[in-house]
Amino acid sequence: MTNYVIALLVTAEIYAILALGLNVTWGMAGIANLGLAGFMAVGAYTTALATKMLGLPISLGMLLAIATSAMFGMLVSISTVRLRGDYLAIVTLGFAEIVRLVASNETWLTNGTDGIAGIAGPWRGQLTPLQFNLVYLVITTAFLISALLFCQRLARAPYGRVLRAIRDDDVLVSVAGKQTLRFKLQAVAIGAGLMGFGGAVYAHYISYISPDVFRSLISLYVFLALTVGGTGNNFGAVLGSMILIALLEASRFVLAFLPTTNAVQLAASREILIGIALLVVLRLAPEGLLPERIRSQ
What we know:
By secondary structure, the protein is mainly alpha-helical. It has one domain (2-215). Helices cover 75% and strands 1% of the residues.
């Protein structure tokens, strides 16, 4: 039971890191990015290959994951610079699917659908499973706090105010003399880097990754977490992720009392219950539980 609770907390914190990355691109800059699962996969595969195939330290593998994901974010944003709204969301969703398909078919690099196993974890061989989970919880908490402080610093800086202005009216910001394109590219790169970081943290915890892990449903879950917590609020991103994981796991126990007959119906019922719970939260708090507060200057 202790291992189960710790695993839930680690998973929630990983989702919180992903939500912080999404908050930079969508919450602050207003750029719809449904390619979250793709950037997460890039980060996970980068650190897995760097540490397992090249024998690099875990810390260096994670840094490479952040840099590679940020680079892919920059490339995607450059190729979609003229797109807005739904069109941009569709293209970024396509990017996530491309990454998954490449990981499934390029067996020489990713081992295809069999995935990559035996990814190193900090002191995994020297600790019992419970001790490793506790150590990794501490590490993940430190990572989350660092990411949260970074995003808070970003939001409070003049750079963050420019991003919010671009979100509200990018034409007006352009008239004011700001290079909106450069700010958008940077916002996507920063967000993608955080998403790749979340993927790297996940890979070193689970010790196994495969293309099926990085489904587009992850992007939807993180969007829901940020919406429930409060779009534009970094603390809301963390709170929403905690609530999302709690709802996902609580639904498993609720389903035991439902008159379903097979696994497909159980899975569908679980998604319905999660949807209803999230709708209730949004009905009571349309702007999220921790809505964004703009400070007067």
